[in-house]
Write a structure and sequence with these properties.
By secondary structure, the protein is of the alpha/beta class. 27% of the residues lie in helices and 31% in strands. The chain has one domain: Rossmann fold. It has seven helices and ten strands. The strands form two sheets. The chain has a seven-stranded mixed β-sheet with strand order 3-2-1-4-5-10-9. A three-stranded antiparallel β-sheet has the order 6-7-8. The longest helix is centred in the middle third of the chain and has 14 residues. The radius of gyration is 17 Å and the shape is globular. This is Class I SAM-dependent methyltransferase. Keywords: Methyltransferase, Transferase. It comes from Thalassospira povalilytica.
């Protein structure tokens, strides 16, 4: 439906092989999902799990991990490190989520943001169906229109989606979706948004650059 084949090429080449959990994701999970308080192991699904950077976090708080990604190279990397300690599926998560759930927590670190709006909408509908009552979605690094990169990319056939980056963090990654507040609130209209943070980072050396992104915590109603 919307998977960019560029990501298989990236992972196969050994790029984007992050193996440490993302600090913003850790903070939001521990503050708002509180998996350590659960009487049973927290069931966690990651959308676009890549090479498994967030698996150590899930295992640290005693959770059970399910991951979905459409890159066979990324999933093979996870299998070589974690074996049967995790459950994985290769699929386009904007078209299907092969796991039935229910999940207590669904996480996404800058994976859904590389898809068109309709694909994101469909994925969020599937996520909502698979979340347990009161389950939590935590998404970080949903790119903001306030980023300089929004104006640097080539407009695609999809509104608010850019492509064609030849350098920088988005080089050769295919589609990059940028959001404003209204669009995020519309996408999550079936959830209760508990946290919506707009983070802006400006650097001056070695070159002036403005980065901006959204972090989201949403609860199933």
């Amino acid at each position: 439906m919307s998977f960019s084949s560029e990501w298989e090429d990236i992972y196969a080449a050994g790029a984007h092989h992050s193996v440490w959990p993302w600090s913003e994701l850790i903070s939001l999970i521990m503050r708002h999902a509180a998996p350590y308080k659960s009487q049973t192991p927290c069931r966690v699904l990651e959308i676009g799990c890549g090479v498994g950077a967030n698996i150590p976090l899930v295992h640290w708080f005693g959770g059970e991990f399910w991951g979905i990604d459409n890159s066979s190279s990324a999933l093979e990397s996870i299998k070589s490190r974690f074996g049967k300690k995790v459950k994985l599926a290769q699929a386009d998560f904007c078209a299907e989520i092969p796991f039935a759930g229910p999940f207590d927590l669904v996480i996404d670190r800058a994976s859904l943001t590389h898809n068109p709006t309709l694909g994101i909408q469909h994925s969020l509908e599937m996520i909502e169906e698979r979340l347990a009552p009161g389950g939590i979605f935590v998404g970080v690094h949903w790119f903001s229109k306030d980023s300089d990169d929004f104006t640097r990319g080539i407009p695609s056939e999809y509104p608010d989606v850019r492509k064609g980056y030849k350098d920088g963090p988005f080089a050769e990654v295919g589609l990059v979706h940028f959001f404003d507040r209204d669009k995020i609130e519309s996408l999550f209209s079936n959830f209760t948004i508990e946290v919506l943070d707009h983070v802006v980072s400006e650097s001056y050396t070695p070159k002036p650059e403005r980065l901006a992104w959204w972090n989201i915590v949403a609860k199933k109603k």
